[in-house]
């Protein structure tokens, strides 16, 4: 069973009546996630990129992208919690 299917299954178990916006949020997140990470562009290009630029460079790139995503998410959460 794939990661996406498992996530959807867990959401159905935790919120069977869809009383929270979690399922909709998960769907929007998957649109971008699957394109780049979940069997998409980055997965296909990772070996050639590591060969061309080295493992350390790709590690720094992905760590920077992870940190940026985390920062954007935390800032968005702060905006939502302050506006409610």
Task: Give a verbal description of the structure.
This protein is an all-alpha fold and 84 residues long. It folds into two domains: 36 residues; 46 residues, no CATH class. It is built from four helices and no strands. The longest helix has 29 residues. The radius of gyration is 16 Å and the shape is flat.
Name some characteristics of this structure:
84 residues, mainly alpha, 4 helices, 0% strand
Report the structural category: mainly alpha
What's the total number of strands? 0
**Rg (CA only):** 16 Å
Proportion of beta-strand residues:
under 5%
Oligomeric status: single chain
Biggest beta-sheet profile: none
Query: What string gives the helices and strands in order?
Result: HHHH
Shape: flat
Count of individual helical segments: 4
């Amino acid at each position: 069973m794939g990661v996406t299917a498992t996530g959807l299954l867990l959401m159905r178990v935790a919120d069977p009546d869809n009383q929270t916006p979690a399922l909709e949020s998960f769907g929007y997140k998957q649109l971008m996630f699957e394109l780049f990470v979940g069997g998409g562009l980055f997965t296909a290009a990772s070996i050639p990129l590591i060969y061309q630029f080295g493992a350390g460079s790709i590690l720094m790139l992905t760590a920077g992208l992870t940190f940026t995503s985390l920062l954007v998410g935390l800032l968005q959460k702060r905006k939502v919690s302050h506006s409610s």
